[in-house]
Write a structure and sequence with these properties.
Layout: E1 31-34, H1 36-40, H2 50-63, E2 67-71, H3 77-89, E3 95-101, H4 104-114, E4 120-127, H5 130-136, H6 141-159, E5 166-173, H7 180-194, E6 202-208, H8 215-226, E7 235-241, H9 248-257, E8 262-265, H10 279-288, H11 300-311, H12 332-347, H13 382-390, H14 398-415, H15 421-429
Helix pairs in contact: 2-3, 3-4, 4-6, 6-7, 8-9, 12-13
């Protein structure tokens, strides 16, 4: 492992007003944008069919997403046809977003796909990072900036040819690997070309196309852009974090504290490489702090089932909030504390959820709030066994409980598995 062939590949942002660093709490949710049908779809081995995309779209609407990036219409016939079909079935309060490269033929095909849309966002982008400029496109800063402005001109010119209510979004791709001052110059040039207004705001989207830095460094990059954008009152500042360092959620939260009003991501973080920002994770982080995320995950098992069948992906057993094991307690000390907390709360009802080791009430996302928590294996103790027995109306004295818990531990240890509740009861009934 030769660490000397690596170096820092992001740029520190010039320091600006850092009052945002004094914040430690997101008191209202950002605007959520699902990119499952575009960014998520382009990263799975078997892209969704038109029928699957239509089903996914309906699920996203049911969850409560008001902005959905539905595809890359110029990339395939499936995306083009799906876009046309979704336009006809979109609720009036849902905004449709599509992505296009800044090329005349692709821009034209994108507008053609979105013709007649009630509220649509044309998302155009161009790479601005040092590595892309030098190694991929071999263009200087001046040429790169002009390409971004040309993209803005393209979408403006194309808009007049098609019927529909269009807005624009611009992304300097690989923003985090771009010098902040140059990224700002590019964004302001695009703003000047688009000339957004209060009624037709421009979305400036800053993607961590590849996550390179700590979440604090990303937050400082966002703060720098946020505080220096021209025509700021007519700009919606958005972020699109990827998860290469495993900190996309933290980065997105930092970005919101730093001034971002909108975040793009996917369910369960599906996306290229290590994935995108996990919108479920971030939304339920808000929820766990008493902030309504304006998204409904009260039937998580059904969402997981549909997601896995449609994408072919699997939700990890330890996935935050959603994994099948995240609320399970096997450790004896954990079980003891949890059971005592349950008993206390039954005697003294509490206004707020505050149970040891359990961040949110599992029943809020469609799981059993108790029986899915206390699980018996060789690591369990008397508290867990006591809880299981009480489900059958059996309550033992302390000495007898300690003795029986030892028997259960031996069985679980010998068989090296979790013991279902009925087997614990059967062991009790068959004891000598």
């Amino acid at each position: 492992m030769n660490h000397k062939k690596y170096k820092k590949q992001y740029f520190d942002a010039p320091r600006v007003d850092e009052k945002w660093l004094k914040k430690d709490f997101i008191d209202k949710p950002p605007a959520w944008v699902s990119s499952d049908m575009r960014d998520g779809n382009q990263s799975i081995s078997k892209p969704m069919t038109k029928e699957q995309k239509m089903g996914f779209f309906k699920m996203l609407c049911k969850i409560g997403f008001k902005e959905i990036e539905i595809g890359f219409p110029a990339a395939s016939d499936t995306d083009f046809e799906t876009t046309r079909s979704i336009i006809e079935e979109t609720p009036n309060d849902v905004v449709l977003q599509v992505l296009t490269q800044s090329r005349p033929d692709l821009v034209e095909k994108t507008f053609k796909a979105m013709q007649g849309v009630n509220d649509g966002i044309i998302h155009f982008y161009y790479p601005t990072s040092v590595v892309q400029r030098e190694q991929v496109f071999q263009k200087a800063k001046k040429q790169t900036l002009q390409k971004c402005v040309d993209g803005a001109k393209m979408v403006k010119d194309a808009e007049s040819k098609y019927n529909g209510n269009f807005r624009f979004e611009f992304s300097p791709e690989s923003f985090t690997e771009t010098e902040p001052e140059f990224a700002l110059e590019v964004c302001n040039a695009v703003i000047d070309e688009i000339n957004p207004t209060r009624k037709k705001k421009l979305i400036i989207n800053l993607p961590a196309t590849v996550e390179r830095s700590t979440s604090l460094a990303f937050g400082r990059q966002i703060a720098f852009i946020n505080q220096n954008l021209e025509n700021r009152q007519n700009i919606i500042l958005s972020v699109h974090p990827h998860n290469d360092r495993g900190t996309a959620v933290a980065a997105a939260e930092m970005a919101v504290l730093a001034g971002a009003e909108r975040v793009e991501g996917t369910l369960f973080g599906n996306g290229e490489r290590t994935g995108n920002l996990d919108l479920i994770n971030m939304a339920l982080n808000c929820f766990s702090q008493g902030v309504d995320p304006k998204l409904d995950f009260s039937n998580m098992p059904d969402i997981i089932d549909f997601y896995e069948k449609t994408t072919g992906m699997t939700v990890h057993a330890r996935h935050p909030y959603a994994g099948k094991n995240v609320f399970k307690a096997y450790s004896g000390s954990h079980q003891d504390a949890i059971v005592k907390s349950f008993d206390f709360r039954k005697k003294f009802p509490q206004k707020y959820w505050n149970v040891p080791y359990i961040v949110i009430d599992p029943s809020d996302i469609g799981l059993n709030s108790e029986k899915d928590i206390i699980c018996i294996n060789s690591q369990s103790g008397k508290g867990g066994v006591d809880y299981v027995l009480r489900q059958y109306g059996i309550q033992l004295e302390r000495d007898e409980l300690i003795k029986f818990a030892s028997v259960i531990k031996q069985i679980a240890d010998k068989e090296a598995r979790e013991l279902p509740y009925d087997e614990v009861k059967e062991a009790f009934n068959s004891r000598k």
